[in-house]
Design brief:
mainly alpha; 5 helices
């Protein structure tokens, strides 16, 4: 929440709070802390009551709808049946991506002149003979015919 504030801005906010509340600032801070403590206790009590009513141990994170359905309504067999098709697609995709990555690394190693793979390939492959290219004949404009 306050990750974008620097020390000067926090100091300015504290000074502003001191100017607004004056001598009542310690009481306002203690009231705010008491309210946060009461809200935390209310959430804990609600979670405990819900756990007791459902007959299972529920944590606050388990109240997310996806987590709640996965943990309390689906059996492990149902969850595996749902995951199985997606898992096989994931494994196939992972294998394909790994193959492409390996091929790209091989191509990059062959192109890089400093790599040992490219050096070894140059040593084993004979270089093609170099044929000299004749220089173009320059026309001499000094000789007029």
């Amino acid at each position: 929440m306050f990750e974008n504030l620097n020390w000067w801005e926090i100091g300015a906010l504290l000074l502003l709070a001191l100017l607004i509340f004056g001598d009542r600032l310690p009481n306002v801070i203690s009231d705010g802390l008491r309210m946060v403590r009461n809200l935390r206790n209310m959430a804990t009590n609600a979670t405990t009551d819900l756990s007791r009513e459902l007959g299972t141990d529920i944590k606050l994170e388990d109240l997310h709808p996806k987590a709640f359905i996965r943990k309390h309504l689906l059996s492990e067999e149902d969850e595996q049946a749902i995951r199985k098709p997606v898992q096989s697609l994931y494994e196939d995709l992972r294998k394909d991506v790994t193959g492409v990555q390996d091929e790209l690394k091989q191509v990059a190693a062959n192109v890089d002149p400093r790599s040992p793979v490219a050096t070894q390939a140059r040593e084993t492959t004979p270089a093609p003979p170099v044929t000299p290219v004749p220089a173009p004949r320059r026309q001499n404009f000094d000789d007029v015919t």
